[in-house]
């Protein structure tokens, strides 16, 4: 089935400057590109969010020795990709009993120990939920207008999906966020900690040269910016899924803000063809997305994924204002918390539209693609 076309845009975020490669600061200043004076800082766009640096805590799995769990069992969990107590607590009995060397009896003991250490209450008050949300980080899209639409940038602990036709700016948005993600906003303030970013490239479209250009726009050290992006080029859906199993070992070592997958569906589409394989494809895609949601919550990071659109080929298309829909069906629709559609606007501009969100009103933002990445539109 043919993919349909659209283009979108983004705008410009705050300028991020670096006095030295170790001490990045986010400041509001004019972009070094053709962007206009409309540029607003991310800080301005999220001024409604309060307080200091994140209280978000990651508890390493080794801490369970304090609850009487043998180190050998903890090593077995680590080998199977479970690096934190939070990750352990998210596993089902069935998943844990599939770990080599972990018996049914041990599963119960492990889950009980994890629960005790994290002291999670099955039910908490809405006030407590609100408190927990203060820990969310937000990443600038590069465009102040698009950041405003998203009420301060792309939020952590969720999957944010952008979809649209070819050349609408999906990969440009990924590149821009791979840079801005290194300096996210925490509780409305620029984080004073350097963050790293994971970039899973399924279509061979990642370009370090673009990262250098975007880093220059924000007056960032190009080498440091490149070093903070960990790239994995994957060639089939099995490698794409396997990449997530390696991730915990990487995520636990440094501070990460973002996992980008450009694109989430392309390899699944290529590897599963025809109606007969659709159920299998959707099941695998569902497992993949479920793993991503867990990582987003476990490490307080943004999962940012791109997706293509499909032209509706049946008669229904004639009665639709926009006869293109995102690939991935209900599985992807339910996994993505925030869905943005991108389309081409006038000239070089692109239009982003909130397609689905639990808290954002429907609305649109116009942006453009510049040498310095996603930025506000000139007009
Ligand atoms: N250095 C640059 N300066 C300005 N515009 C650029 C630059 N590099 C790429 N672009 C523009 O970005 C657009 C391509 O956007 P992008 O690669 O993000 O598309 P996409 O939505 O990922 O498409 P696909 O579905 O094919 O992956 C093109 O219109 C191109 O002109
Ligand atoms: Mg692309």
UniProtKB/TrEMBL annotation:
<dbReference type="Pfam" id="PF08423">
    <property type="entry name" value="Rad51"/>
</dbReference>
<dbReference type="GO" id="GO:0070192">
    <property type="term" value="P:chromosome organization involved in meiotic cell cycle"/>
</dbReference>
<dbReference type="InterPro" id="IPR010995">
    <property type="entry name" value="DNA_repair_Rad51/TF_NusA_a-hlx"/>
</dbReference>
<keyword id="KW-0067">ATP-binding</keyword>
<dbReference type="GO" id="GO:0005524">
    <property type="term" value="F:ATP binding"/>
</dbReference>
<feature type="domain" description="RecA family profile 2">
    <location>
        <begin position="316"/>
        <end position="379"/>
    </location>
</feature>
<feature type="region of interest" description="Disordered">
    <location>
        <begin position="1"/>
        <end position="38"/>
    </location>
</feature>
<keyword id="KW-0238">DNA-binding</keyword>
<protein>
    <submittedName>
        <fullName>Rad51 protein</fullName>
    </submittedName>
</protein>
<keyword id="KW-0131">Cell cycle</keyword>
<dbReference type="InterPro" id="IPR027417">
    <property type="entry name" value="P-loop_NTPase"/>
</dbReference>
<dbReference type="GO" id="GO:0003690">
    <property type="term" value="F:double-stranded DNA binding"/>
</dbReference>
<dbReference type="InterPro" id="IPR020588">
    <property type="entry name" value="RecA_ATP-bd"/>
</dbReference>
<dbReference type="GO" id="GO:0140664">
    <property type="term" value="F:ATP-dependent DNA damage sensor activity"/>
</dbReference>
<feature type="compositionally biased region" description="Low complexity">
    <location>
        <begin position="11"/>
        <end position="21"/>
    </location>
</feature>
<dbReference type="Pfam" id="PF14520">
    <property type="entry name" value="HHH_5"/>
</dbReference>
<dbReference type="GO" id="GO:0000730">
    <property type="term" value="P:DNA recombinase assembly"/>
</dbReference>
<dbReference type="GO" id="GO:0003697">
    <property type="term" value="F:single-stranded DNA binding"/>
</dbReference>
<keyword id="KW-0547">Nucleotide-binding</keyword>
<keyword id="KW-0539">Nucleus</keyword>
<keyword id="KW-0469">Meiosis</keyword>
<dbReference type="InterPro" id="IPR020587">
    <property type="entry name" value="RecA_monomer-monomer_interface"/>
</dbReference>
<dbReference type="GO" id="GO:0006312">
    <property type="term" value="P:mitotic recombination"/>
</dbReference>
<dbReference type="GO" id="GO:0042148">
    <property type="term" value="P:DNA strand invasion"/>
</dbReference>
<dbReference type="GO" id="GO:0000150">
    <property type="term" value="F:DNA strand exchange activity"/>
</dbReference>
<comment type="similarity">
    <text>Belongs to the RecA family. DMC1 subfamily.</text>
</comment>
<dbReference type="InterPro" id="IPR003593">
    <property type="entry name" value="AAA+_ATPase"/>
</dbReference>
<feature type="domain" description="RecA family profile 1">
    <location>
        <begin position="135"/>
        <end position="309"/>
    </location>
</feature>
<dbReference type="InterPro" id="IPR013632">
    <property type="entry name" value="Rad51_C"/>
</dbReference>
<dbReference type="GO" id="GO:0007131">
    <property type="term" value="P:reciprocal meiotic recombination"/>
</dbReference>
<dbReference type="GO" id="GO:0000794">
    <property type="term" value="C:condensed nuclear chromosome"/>
</dbReference>
<dbReference type="InterPro" id="IPR016467">
    <property type="entry name" value="DNA_recomb/repair_RecA-like"/>
</dbReference>
